[in-house]
Design goal:
The protein has an eight-stranded mixed β-sheet, with helices on both faces. It contains 15 helices and 13 strands. By secondary structure, it is an alpha/beta fold. Helix 10 packs across helix 11 and helix 11 crosses helix 12. It has two domains: 199 residues, Rossmann fold (3-Layer(aba) Sandwich); 172 residues, Rossmann fold (3-Layer(aba) Sandwich). The longest helix has 32 residues. The structure holds ligand SAJ. Belongs to the UDP-glucose/GDP-mannose dehydrogenase family. Keywords: NAD, Oxidoreductase.
């Protein structure tokens, strides 16, 4: 079978390379010439453990090629971004662009799979666009009735990707997959495809439920993190150590509070709950509130840093971590990056940024007066104030003596050894 994968990012590239090594002939399509060239050289443009090895072997085997243009094939996977706009409504134009591009190449019997996390009914919209673009093809509409066994038609399904950045290659194969066709025949055909390379269970449903399943998972996590972040605000006010508090509460057999932090980042959890809010604004009250709590937590941390700096005379501040979570190089929607970017430089004589996962400061920080990317030891030796924004492994190894006499704001609870005199608020 020949598979066309549209979008060669964090999901499309690992998927394309994995199935190429399983014997499919794969054409990866992207709008960026740089990405296409990089992959055709057997190299990668993103960091994910072991992905470089997989892409190299897929390209060397001849089964994976990258291109700016799609071609004819049997299976078309769409894995492009679905961001939100400033007003928190969804932006699905990348999907529409990808569909418009593949439309001329479609033929009877083809299977189209939307893997991008999408608002409910997006898979049906693909059907609507295709009916307009290719009136010659038989494109299914949403139905739960199982009555179309004509093989000369198009099959259309949603199969949301749920891999965790940092563990993508393992989870691509082992995770349970939810497969929802716009009609039952589409579900069946898409399930057969996933069976060929997934070890996890494959669970059938319809496209709307599949879309909502993915949004539900990420909204669940967002609501639970919001609970932890709200606790951290309350604990600060009541002068309680939130890490001790959560540790104690989690000893209860039916309680599992997540960890507070400087806010919720990443391209999924900070985005997907808005798709639910957009679809049912009057009903999704808790989900909206959780988003707002998590967004507020970032402003709160920034306010605390400024307030602490205001009590000192232009300290050198060390900011530990920029990525959206521990041990990855992904800065999308990162609250840590947001906080460092919004620091008021007038309050500091220097802003020393420590991020073991980048070689130079991200564009937004590059030309800021007094901002420097330095290594951990250098930052700790120089700074009077230390702010932990990401719980990278390397930060746990810091010895208590290295923090002696410094003002510390640990938003991730990395340094539990701090004395009460040293500030260790969430
Ligand atoms: N975070 C906390 N406290 C916690 C856990 C996480 O503050 O206790 C923060 C992280 O620091 C980060 C953000 O939340 O800023 C999100 O991190 P994450 O590890 O929870 O999730 P992602 O965004 O890396 O991946 C999620 C996963 N979804 C779920 O766990 C339900 C993943 O399985 C999805 O595939 C992915 O979203 C996606 O692509 O949708």
């Amino acid at each position: 079978h020949k598979v066309i994968v549209s979008g060669l990012g964090y999901i499309g590239l690992p998927t394309a390379s994995l199935i190429a090594t399983k014997g499919f002939e794969v054409r990866g399509v992207d709008v960026s010439e740089h990405i296409v060239d990089t992959i055709n050289q057997g190299k990668i443009h993103i960091y994910e453990p072991d992905l470089d090895v997989l892409v190299r072997s897929a390209v060397n085997s001849g089964n994976l090629t990258a291109s700016l243009e799609p071609s004819a094939g049997d299976i078309f996977i769409i894995a492009v971004p679905t961001p939100i706009k400033n007003d928190h409504t969804s932006d699905i134009h990348y999907i529409e662009q990808a569909v418009t591009k593949i439309a001329p190449y479609l033929a009877p019997g083809n299977l189209i799979i939307l893997e991008s996390t999408s608002p409910v009914t997006t898979t049906e919209k693909i059907g609507d666009w295709l009916r307009a673009l290719r009136p010659d093809l038989s494109i299914p509409s949403f139905t739960l009735a199982d009555d179309d066994d004509n093989e000369e038609r198009i099959f259309l399904a949603h199969c949301p990707e749920r891999v965790l950045p940092g563990r993508i290659l393992k989870e691509l194969v082992d995770n349970t997959r939810v497969v929802g066709g716009v009609d039952p025949a589409s579900t069946r055909v898409a399930m057969d495809f996933y069976r060929s390379f997934v070890n996890g269970e494959i669970l059938p449903t319809n496209s709307r439920t599949a879309e909502m399943t993915k949004l539900t998972e990420n909204a669940f996590r967002d609501v639970n993190i919001a609970f932890a972040n709200e606790l951290s605000l309350i604990a600060d006010q009541l002068e309680i150590d939130v890490w001790e508090l959560i540790g104690l509460a989690n000893h209860h057999p039916r309680v599992n509070v997540l960890q507070p932090g400087p806010g919720v980042g990443g391209h999924c959890i900070a985005v997907d709950p808005w798709f639910i809010v957009e679809a049912a604004p009057d009903k999704a009250k808790l989900i909206r509130q959780a988003r707002e709590v998590n967004l507020y937590k970032t402003d709160y941390v920034l306010g605390r840093i400024h307030a602490l700096a205001g009590t000192m005379y232009q300290p050198k501040v060390a900011c530990l971590g920029l990525s959206f979570k521990a041990d990855i190089d992904d800065f999308r929607e990162s609250p840590a990056l947001d906080i460092v970017t919004r620091l008021d430089e007038r309050l500091f004589s220097k802003v020393l940024v420590v991020e073991p996962h980048c070689q130079r400061l991200p564009a937004g920080l590059l030309n800021r007066e007094g901002f420097e990317l330095v290594d951990l030891d250098e930052a700790l030796a120089a700074a009077q104030m230390v702010v932990v924004l990401v719980n990278h492994k390397a930060f746990y190894a810091v010895a208590p003596e290295a923090l002696q006499g410094k003002t510390v704001l640990d938003t991730r609870g990395v340094w539990r050894f701090l004395e009460p005199g040293q500030i260790a608020k969430s």
